[in-house]
Amino acid sequence: MRWALAKVSIAVTTMVALAFLVPLVLTVQRTAHDRAFTDAERQAAELGPALAITTDQAALGRALASTRGGAEGLVAVHVPAPAQPSALVAVGRSRAGAAELAAVAGAGSSSVVAVPGGSVLLRPVAVADARIAVIEVFVPEAELGRGVARACLVLGGVAAALVLASVLVADRLGTRIVRSARGLAGAARELGSGDLTARALGDEQVAAQRCDAADVVRDRADFWSALAEDQGRGWAVSGVDRPAPVPVAHAELATALDALLGNVFRHTAEGVAFAVELRLTDHAVWVRVLDAGPGVVDPAAALRRGGGAGGAGSTGLGLDIARRVAESTGGELTIGRSQLGGAEVRMRLRTSSTRPPDGRGRRLRHRRGFRARNRGASLSGS
């Protein structure tokens, strides 16, 4: 899996890099070419005033020597011969042929001609007696490509870095996918062997996710209130006026509360009231679901089989889900008699690592009920 993702990332990144690199290289080459001939045009323009004043070869030779191009042997001037005006006499080193020079002088427009080692810019200039002189500027091949190799090297390095980065990202992604797949496969094998405690979590941060129990209770109570109104059930929610953070993921606590409320609707008659209470203590958050139904005849047996409040016909999944969520925090699930007259399911979610004194936890888990406390919770009917 990891190697497959790496190959895909290499192929995709390479294609994307080439799609950008090829036009960029062509643009760099064109820029270098234009820069070289712009400089050649500037050098030719420097000699224009000298030709307008004189066509004397000695004077033009001194003018050429005073320019950078002339001193380096890159610029030449072709002026009409005194005895034969139609012929051109070269001042400086010339690389262009007589035919190219005659064509430019006759056409009266600039031209670029390829010569061994580079190219020459031929620019006609009008001199005295309506005659035409030609300025020749040689542009070496190296000048036409100056900076292109370095730019290509830099662009190639950027492309290689992008490909390497994409491979590293793909490898990390592949590692996570493989690890998640292995964890899921292991959890599936454990579930297949009968271990219902098996879980697949992506990482420890997700496993340690916290949520506000008050928000969850408000949200799920609002969700079930619509069905309660349809069935004529009175209902109430209390204790959700302040935050109650618990070390449980939002989705897990919502699933557990839905399971407990679902038991109320499945195992009590329509019109039977219910309530959800939230209470905070120093080391725990209590979530209590109360109803006015017939209650649970044998709470201990119901907890042993993970059964619902209705007894016969129950799958036991609702209480089992809530129990697992409570125990994941170090808490527990208990069943007792509510002040409404029916069942009261209490889910204790520990919020501190401090444990109660020895024996206290066992007494809480095994006693069948405790005195119900309802601090101002009122039932509201539809």
How would you portray this structure in words?
The chain is α+β, with helices and mostly antiparallel strands and 382 residues long. The protein has helices at 2-53, 57-65, 68-71, 98-107, 141-144, 148-192, 204-207, 213-230, 250-267, 299-305, 317-328, 360-366, and strands at residues 75-80, 88-91, 111-115, 118-126, 132-140, 211-212, 235-238, 245-246, 274-280, 284-291, 332-337, 343-350. The strands form three sheets. A five-stranded antiparallel sheet has the order 2-1-5-4-3, with helices on both faces. Strands 7-9-10-12-11 form a five-stranded mixed sheet, with helices on both faces. The longest helix is centred in the N-terminal third of the chain and has 52 residues, at 2-53. The chain starts with a helix and ends in a 16-residue tail after the last helix. Mean pLDDT is 80; it is low at 203-207, 307-315 and 356-382.
How big is the Rg?
46 Å
Report the order of strands and helices. Answer: HHHEEHEEEHHHEHEEHEEHHEEH
Average of per-residue pLDDT values:
80
Distance between the termini: 57 Å
Biggest sheet descriptor: 5 strands, antiparallel
